[in-house]
Amino acid sequence: DSKRRLRNNWQAYTPELGQLREDRLRMETQLRRAVENEEFRLVYQPQVDLRHGRVVAAEALIRWRSQQGEMRPDHFIAHAENTGDIVRIGRWVMQQACAQVAAWRAAGHGIVRVAVNVSYRQFIGDDLADAVRAILAEHRLPGSALELEFTERALIEDAPDTLRTFAGLRDLGVMLSIDDFGEGYSALNYLRRLPIHGLKLSQLFVAGVPHNHSDVAVCQAIAGIARSLGLGLVAEGVESEAQRRFLLELGVPVGQGFLFAPGLSADDLARRLTLEQAVLAAQTGER
Ligand code: C2E
Ligand code: MG
Ligand code: MG
Ligand code: MG
């Protein structure tokens, strides 16, 4: 039957499958040209201090203005990983994000660091640390201006160079964090082996607090791991005031989510930072 056929990794040709394959090929062809056609842009989601909402950093998130309309990364990153185009795309993202944080720093905004998502494929056949060193130098940025977010997949893929790459990045002063922590394999072994600075508490669990008991338990456990290993912790997907308060009580210092802001254009984020500084200046003046 069809289930067994799928399990045997063999599929009969059907018109639907033909269509799917065509769609995939078309997307991969378009992706190949998307960098030079300047079809990508980055939005920046603020990471805020959960106590008072002040912006401390921003995560760069890619968007694709494809011929089919604006597309979310979940719909094309995996394809780009399959074809290997993610290496070029990832390099473009790093360039853009570093240029942007250099501009923010020069403007004297409070924002001094940008976080960039890195695919496991960017480890393979490319010296990530060398590429990062060159980009930082080009923009005259200290390593601490850049944070790289890896998913657990990048860590368990066990490319022979992972340890060397992480050590190289650490030596540059770049912050290294694990994205969507708890969602994947949570191979805690890597927390001991690799020079990680922080964890990002997956929105999968944040979504359920403060009411769902098992989500509460998982958040507590992850906060405990971060605390005892001396790691930073950023909560993802904070959507409500009740969640913010719960996380704060748990000792989570930083959060991002729709409660504060979605991914914003660089200009919109700059406007927000200017406003924030004005409010802060007014408050300081009052004292
Ligand atoms: P991520 O790194 O875990 O990013 C968080 C995702 O959650 C983003 O989706 C963001 O828009 C969304 N989000 C933020 N706050 C909230 C909230 O309060 N509620 C909910 N429901 N969602 C929220 P986005 O931008 O669609 O990105 C999806 C994923 O695609 C990212 O997950 C990341 O893994 C990947 N990605 C994004 N940009 C890049 C990139 O430049 N390179 C690579 N390799 N992957 C990227
Ligand atoms: Mg991320
Ligand atoms: Mg995440
Ligand atoms: Mg995610």
From TrEMBL:
Task: Show where the EAL domain sits.
Answer: 24-277
Coiled-coil ranges per UniProt: none
Top-level taxon of the source organism: Bacteria
Under which name does UniProt file this protein?
EAL domain-containing protein
Species of origin reads Luteimonas yindakuii
Describe which stretch of the whole protein the shown chain covers, with first residue, last residue and complete length.
576 to 862 of 862
